[in-house]
């Protein structure tokens, strides 16, 4: 079991150090029990690859994404101003985040408000670590040869045109990547975006995650790889609803890589 | 001689009336687009031309659906190229000549042959389109918003194009017969690879009958073309022109990026500035600038849309690709991105007519885009996944309008589902959409 200390920016600065990257955890990654496992996996990967990183801890606050997409521009800009003040105060240059919504908003909407950073989604950062040889995968990891499908998060894929990084991470696992009928720019939403995560769905004839789960089941994949804590929740619920939890495993690519380098303390 | 001049006069009058009615409607739509709020899209000109060349001229997004895409390219190329022939028809009509370009000889023959082949391709494509809409009844053509006029509009366009192409080919067929009989005024010109198959239809006619049929088809064709010209800007078919400016003014940012409202930024900057005096009188306007009227937040009515969004609403041809990929729509929710565009266009059109009827000033009609056309239920069903934006063959963004309307709901009317209000409160109070204490944000670290 690998134990290590995840430093906060405040601690780092107190020691007179400044990290290479800030790991922006996000609300789901901080508070949701399932998403916390993804957060830990990302932290373990960063540690394993000897990346100098820190988190903001209690100084992190919601980016304002759900507020903005729900129409509350005022609340969004207040959140943005607060976060930008903190980030600029620490002189942050590079951010890695496990949430495509945080990624999108900090990459595309913060710069105009005074927050200019090099923002990377964790799939991009992990792909870079792999290509630079900083992560070595075990010979016999649990995903080798597995049939895996990747569910594109809207705000990583369509929103920012990143389809390859998560796929290259799956390729590195030496797994069988199988695409869903609707993938990449045609990928179907999990149903959580645009603040839907925080409200009841409107009246319809099925839930969006049920629809997406049907796409998954068509591929007969053993694993649905995700890159977003909200997609992860929706797909987990969808698979559970279809009573396929025994055969279909929903995993974030960070968790898959973490277990492939055998650093998950489980 | 007199008859020939009479025909020219009738032709000129018909053409003039058509162009006038077309221009009048285009001016109306232009005024409506200009009633929209300002948005600066004057940047990145090279990239804009390139986008227009690729997406409108090159139809790059149409072929995402190969069957419809390729058939559409037939109709599109046919329409553009056959219009070259219109030049000859108009000149003949005005000058009283017949096949004025016949002297081009073999070049002319090749051109006419190309026009015929394209006319046939257009005809076949339109027949298939009619079958797809009415017999195969593809789901995206049968959504609730397509009932009544929108479906009729689509069928009128297709039938009109079939009639026009049939008239064009029959005109050539009867002309070819007239040429073979060496009738007066029928110069031997043209090559008729398609219309030769129509010759048997008319070969039984007398010499006079042939001339009447040829003239009849010539007039039917040109009268049809002029009527179509007038019809287009009243119809979804307006996309054939508006697709070009609409793609030129495409959103060139990442589709995930949403604009930051400048009006809100001003307020937030003021709040974050410890030296600002919230009670200070605003500085006098520079020079003689008229102080800006306070704008409402977001979109509540047609004239709250920005001009690009209004242009998008008039450019939409109701193909429904957006709706067919919308996760909310495919799971039975009320939201249809296509309906959003159609509602915006219908409301803006209504405001435009209201203004014209009231000397240029809008007279309150007790209606709003939000409420009378688009319901809150539709707006709240959007996941902001951008599938509609990706699917649109001419880069329309229904999502942008949906989110702008949510801004009005929240920032003007404070109307949101209770769960959304709770989410706002949580973010305000503890910096997360859920009610967890901010101090516990780093708790996961302990067992990392």
User: In the CATH classification, which architecture of the largest domain in chain A applies?
Assistant: 3-Layer(aba) Sandwich
Task: Please tally the helical runs of chain B, counting DSSP H or I stretches of 4 or more residues.
Answer: 18
Integer average pLDDT of chain A: 95
The protein's oligomeric status is heterodimer
Number of strands of chain B: 0
- State the CATH class of the largest domain in chain A: Alpha Beta
In spatial order, strands of the major sheet of chain A run 2-1-3-4
Determine the N-to-C terminus distance of chain B.
98 Å
Task: Give the largest interface.
Answer: A-B, 73 and 68 residues
Domains counted in the coordinates of chain A: how many? 2
Low-confidence stretches of chain A: none
CATH topology title of the largest domain in chain A = Rossmann fold
* Average of per-residue pLDDT values of chain B: 92
Measured distance between first and last alpha carbons of chain A: 8 Å
Describe the structure.
The complex is a heterodimer of chains A (266) and B (448). Chain A has 2 domains: 9-128, Rossmann fold; 137-260, Rossmann fold (3-Layer(aba) Sandwich), CATH 3.40.50. In chain A, 41% of the residues lie in helices and 11% in strands. Chain A contains 11 helices and 8 strands. In chain A, the strands form 2 sheets. In chain A, strands 2-1-3-4 form a 4-stranded parallel sheet, with helices on both faces. In chain A, strands 6-5-7-8 form a 4-stranded parallel sheet, with helices on both faces. In chain A, strand 7, helix 10 and strand 8 (249-252) form a beta-alpha-beta unit. In chain A, helix 3 packs across helix 11 (253-260), helix 7 (122-131) packs across helix 8 and helix 9 packs across helix 10 (229-241). Chain B is 60% helix and 0% strand. The longest helix of chain B is centred in the N-terminal third of the chain and has 33 residues, at 2-34. Chain B starts with a helix and ends in an 18-residue tail after the last helix. The mean pLDDT of chain B is 92. Chains A and B meet through helix 2, helix 3, helix 4, helix 5 and helix 6 of A and helix 9, helix 12, helix 16, helix 17 and helix 18 of B.
